[in-house]
Amino acid sequence: MEKSRTILLIEDEEAHAALITRILEEVYRGVEIHLVRNGEEALDYLFQQGTYANQEKSPRPDLVLLDLRLPRLDGLEVLKAIKRSERLKVIPVVVLTSSESETDVQTAYLSGANIYLVKSLGFGEFAELIRMVTSWLIKARLPRKD
Amino acid sequence: MSLQKKTLLITGLTLLCLIALLYAISYNLLLGSFAELEEQTTRRNVERVLSALAEDLSTLEATLGDWAAWDDTYNFVGGINEEYVANNLLDGTFIGLRISLMLFTNQSGAIVYGKAFDLRNEQEVPVPPSLIELLSQNASLFHHPTTASSITGLVLLPEGPLLIASQPIRTSAEEGPIRGTLIMGRYLDAQEVERLAELTQLSLSLYRFNESPPLPELREATFALSKDSPIFIQPVGRESIAGFALIEDIYGKPALVLRIDQPRSIYLQGLATLRYLLLAVVSVGVVFLVLLVAVLNTLVLSPLAYLNERVSSIGASGDLSKRVEITGRDEFSNLADSVNAMLASLEQSQSALAESEEKYRAFFKTSRDPVFITSRDGKWIDANDAAVALFGYESRSDLFNVRVADLYEHADDRAEHIRHIEEQGATKDYPVNLRKKDGTGIPTLITSVAKRDDKGAVIGYQGTIRDITERKRAEEERERLIKDLEMRNAEMERFVYTISHELRTPLVTAQAYTDLLRRDLERRASEKVAADLRFIENAVSMMARLLEDTLELSRTGRVMSPPEDVPFSALVRDALVQLTEQLKWGGVEVAVAEDFPTVHVDRTRLVEVLVNLIENSIKFMGDQPKPKIEIGYRTADNEPIFFVKDNGIGLEKSQHEKVFQLFYKMDKESKGSGAGLTIVKRIVEVHGGRIWIESELGKGCTVCFTLPMV
């Protein structure tokens, strides 16, 4: 029995969260997806504090999907917090955003993002993109769903 | 000292020196030769006396010759002629021959006969024993070797000097054998000296050589006389000159000093001549001097004095049109011409100067640029009307009562300005802030130079001031516009970025779910269709809302009704009317302050602001059991700060700025696009006000803002 993989999805837009969850569930079997809705919540989860103090219920993610524009605390701040932490910085972070701004791309990579992905129009294309990228990062460790 | 006196003095002195020189030379040359002549004459006279003396002696010798070479004498000594004495040796013989003494000796030297005679008293005296003694000591006088032998000379006896002659006694035929010696003597007494003096026409005197000389000149002569220089000449005083001669005795020893005295007639004559010469030269000199002064006066000094007086009077009167008149054609008329030419050119240049001064004055007065002249210590010397106007004073004298340094906005600026001028000699467009009478600052550019005196020391400054208030204002306006434009540009960029990003989100959703919807329909997964459609609908309505807010925001900047004076309380009232339902539904208590000031605003927009803020307060009350909203104002720095305060959930410091960002939402679940506060901020800022948040998490929130006052 393989240990199930955990993905932390940080996304404020309900529709986008549903969409990405659906894509991930279609691509991988037995993947555990945790969704947080804003930056502060994301840090609580990652550092296992507040409502996420229980380690059983909020396990350390193997991959983080991060939206940049978040209420309360900016996505970039979350990214920097992850990469500053000795414990967390090895976790691959995929920035997932609708911004195509070159400044955003540069800032994200400088802050330690592993991949910068622009949310593309059309489900097929978006799904393929997510599949490709995540497989690069966790393919060997995540069993494919048939 | 006047030129006349100087000339007189110099010429006189030169003349005096020349005369003195002439006198010295003549004195030395003339008197020298006169003195020489005098000496020669005196010497000759001495020689004359000596030769007279010699003559006397030779007469004595000749007489002696007659007596010694005479048979009678020969026989007498031989003892043969007894009557000889009685016949021949009579008193008369002595007187006639002028002899004082006769001695006859025989061959053996014994005196055969001797007779002495006092010629003055004409009586016989005994033969002086001193002579006998002298003869006994000296045998040569009566031992003659031959018949021709003869001895003459002088012997000094205590009785006086005696001229003596000695010859052998022989026959009349001058033959021997020699029977003895005949000696004759004649005293060189006063009588004899007088005779010699008469003979030579000279004043004579005799002194013994070895006697201590009674007179100083004699002492000197005794000292100077010797065998080698037997004659010595010596002036005695101015009037006479003495000649001395040494006379030896028969043995060659110095015996007598002969002295003659004669007046210095030659020398005195020379002296007189010299005096006449001097007198003549001085007379000529005085005449020359008088003549010179007269000529100098007529030809040089009086025209010079005239010229001097004339030029001084023209200088004193300052009237350059006057001229100097001198007739004739000499250096003075040339000088007068030159002076006249100079006066003419001076007159010309002065009129040119006056003209240029007038031009400068006119320029100074009418120049539209302020022109100033100030002293080094900061007092006014001159200023034109433009300068008076620039500083806002009524008159020049008004302005001149103010110290220059006080016209600088900062008192230290003048020192700094002066330092620049003096270091560089001048400044061009030096920026200085000056001050008007009423205290208003005037930004200016000053172009000035340092004024210096003859020695190069700075005495003041002059220059022009350019008022650049307008230019400065235009520059500031331009700066402000540029900054504003830059800000707007940045805002625009942010705006475009936000819009594109925000619009993209629902677009992605709609597109993806449209695809999914299609797939779900193909797979007949009907249970998912409803959810897919809901997502699509939400996305579309979200887009519509975004568009609407975007339009609203862009209108805020562009469209604004003209501002009006509205009491702030009226605005609050309007807003509360609009929100009556919501407030009632939320059970919110509203407290409104009294005595609000009146503001100058776009009424509709401001009501919109208040509505938005109150709505937000209602929205973020959380689970507050006694929700309350307070609308009021406070004053800080003379500016009223209006506020809307609630006791809701509040927000932490990090969110204070963010909430004003376009489409920023505190809570994803809340309604609205997140443009509300952005629009509020925009409206306040368009009015020229500021807006900010004072809040802490859990302690309610206060939104503060300022507005333009009436």
Overall pLDDT confidence of chain B: 87
End-to-end separation of chain A in angstroms reads 16 Å
Category by helix and strand content of chain A? alpha/beta
Shape, per Cα inertia axes of chain B:
rod-shaped
Uncertain spans of chain A, ≥5 residues at pLDDT below 50?
none
- Per the principal axes of the C-alpha atoms, what is the gross shape of chain A? globular
Largest sheet of chain A: 5 strands, parallel
Structural class of chain B: alpha+beta
Main sheet: strands, sense, barrel of chain B:
6 strands, antiparallel
Strand order of the largest sheet of chain B: 3-2-1-6-5-4
Largest interface: A-B, 25 and 27 residues
Task: Give a verbal description of the structure.
- The complex is a heterodimer of chains A (146) and B (710).
- Chain A is of the alpha/beta class.
- Chain A has 5 helices and 5 strands.
- In chain A, strands 2-1-3-4-5 form a 5-stranded parallel sheet, sandwiched between helices.
- In chain A, helix 1 (14-27) links the parallel strand 1 and strand 2 (32-36).
- In chain A, helix 2 runs parallel beside helix 3 (75-84).
- The longest helix of chain A has 16 residues, at 123-138.
- The model of chain A has no long low-confidence stretch (mean pLDDT 84).
- With 710 residues, chain B is an alpha+beta fold.
- The radius of gyration of chain B is 78 Å and the shape is rod-shaped.
- Chain B starts with a helix and ends in a 5-residue tail after the last strand.
- In chain B, 26% of the residues are buried.
- Chain A binds chain B through residues 12-16, 18-19, 22, 37-38, 69, 71-73, 98-101, 119-124, 126, and chain B through 497, 500-501, 504-509, 511-516, 519, 531, 535, 538-539, 654-655, 664-668.
